[in-house]
Design the sequence.
């Protein structure tokens, strides 16, 4: 196989043929390469899926809160009884709960505004001392029945008298009172408006300070919560005033809305 003239300058006289064969390989490969290998692949331009660059956006978190005087209340009350047998505990609870329902109706609460929220029946155990003086032996002492209801009160001026009547009728558990609005849509919408106005105001402030202008809103995320007085706990053992009903104050309830808003900024 004749050696191309271009290789003569790289070979010493008497170089082995193996070297010539190795040097000849690139030429041979180049000669058999298909025409398609010589074609140039088209260039590709990567485009970010979000046309808004991160450095041109501003994220603002703002909150709006509205306070209102409540016009409804929810009372959680009921009866807990104990007896040696389950049937006796049930019978005692039934009699007392009939008095509770009667007291709620006497307070002007409609049947549709009274709902059973919890009912349970279970054994009650006691621990006694054994011969070695340790209280580690459990024995069945009886049964406990708990029947709880939640009642909606629409006349807040009657809450104190209602609680007194429930205790007199046999109610012995009160799990709290919560207050709210019958229709809270207006209060929530006002809180939303306040939150958005605050978000826009702060976005314009930051944009102006940085030499930008607010172009548009990209995203809005909303988070709601209701705030207000903590539930007031009451017990049947509380002192009952003869001259006046138990004082109860509704205070104010608050509705809070938080928004996370992303703005696009332009120069």
Sequence:
């Amino acid at each position: 196989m004749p050696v191309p003239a271009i290789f003569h300058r790289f070979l010493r006289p008497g170089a082995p043929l193996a070297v010539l064969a190795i040097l000849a390989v690139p030429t041979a490969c180049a000669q058999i390469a298909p025409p398609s290998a010589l074609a140039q692949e088209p260039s590709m331009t990567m485009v970010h899926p979000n046309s808004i660059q991160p450095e041109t956006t501003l994220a603002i978190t703002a909150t709006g809160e509205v306070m209102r005087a409540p016009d409804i209340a929810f009372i959680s009350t009921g009866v807990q009884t104990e007896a040696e047998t389950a049937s006796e505990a049930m019978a005692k609870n039934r009699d007392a709960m009939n008095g509770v329902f009667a007291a709620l109706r006497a307070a002007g609460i409609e049947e549709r505004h009274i709902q059973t929220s919890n009912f349970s029946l279970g054994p009650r155990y006691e621990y006694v001392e054994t011969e070695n003086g340790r209280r580690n032996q459990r024995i069945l002492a009886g049964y406990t029945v708990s029947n709880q209801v939640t009642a909606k009160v629409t006349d807040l001026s009657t809450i104190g008298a209602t609680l007194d009547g429930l205790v007199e009728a046999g109610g012995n558990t009160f799990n709290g009172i919560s207050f709210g609005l019958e229709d809270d849509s207006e209060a929530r919408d006002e809180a939303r408006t306040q939150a958005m106005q605050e978000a826009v105001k702060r976005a314009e402030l930051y944009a102006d300070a940085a030499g930008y202008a607010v172009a548009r809103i990209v995203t809005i995320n909303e988070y709601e919560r209701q705030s207000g007085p903590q539930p007031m706990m009451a017990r049947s053992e509380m002192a009952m005033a003869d001259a006046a009903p138990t004082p109860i104050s509704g205070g104010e309830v608050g509705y809070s809305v938080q928004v996370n808003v992303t703005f696009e900024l332009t120069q």
Observations:
- The mean pLDDT is 80.
- The CA atoms of residues 28 and 65 lie 82 Å apart.
- The two ends are 72 Å apart (CA to CA).
- Strands lie at 57-68, 72-83, 114-129, 135-153, 173-180, 213-227, 234-235, 253-266.
